[in-house]
Write a structure and sequence with these properties.
By secondary structure, this protein is mainly alpha-helical. It is built from five helices and no strands. The two termini are 31 Å apart.
Length: 123
């Protein structure tokens, strides 16, 4: 959502805004995981591997669905920050992405992957 807000506020085109949104999603997703894993005493290289294993598929699916909904929603990419369409499309896209990403995460955790990898570092 942050990338969409920043790109729209700066008047960037659709492609640049989408690239920023995806880049920030991966950055903050990995950063949140890294914070906890590093705090558990894991070294930086191992922590990066854990974050990549835990979050890559989940973030990729989330961003594909989230941004896909926004791109396909008529007028959403052209709406400004003051438009209800902008905020409504963001909220609905996030909700749809959450619903569709939850089974992916559950499947990965059930196979000892995804956030199951991170859970072993929580005490």
């Amino acid at each position: 959502m942050l990338g969409m807000v920043v790109g729209t506020a700066l008047g960037w085109g659709n492609t640049a805004t989408l690239v920023l949104a995806v880049a920030l999603a991966f950055f903050f997703g990995y950063a949140l995981t890294l914070r906890g894993v590093l705090k558990a005493g894991v070294g930086p290289r191992a922590a990066v591997r854990v974050a990549l294993a835990a979050d890559t598929l989940s973030i990729a699916v989330m961003e594909l669905v989230d941004n896909g909904v926004i791109v396909l929603w008529p007028g959403a990419m052209d709406a400004g920050l003051g438009d209800a369409l902008f905020w409504g499309a963001l909220v609905i896209a996030l909700a749809v992405a959450f619903v569709l990403t939850t089974p992916v995460n559950k499947w990965m955790i059930g196979r000892g992957r995804g956030h199951a990898v991170v859970h072993r570092y929580h005490h």
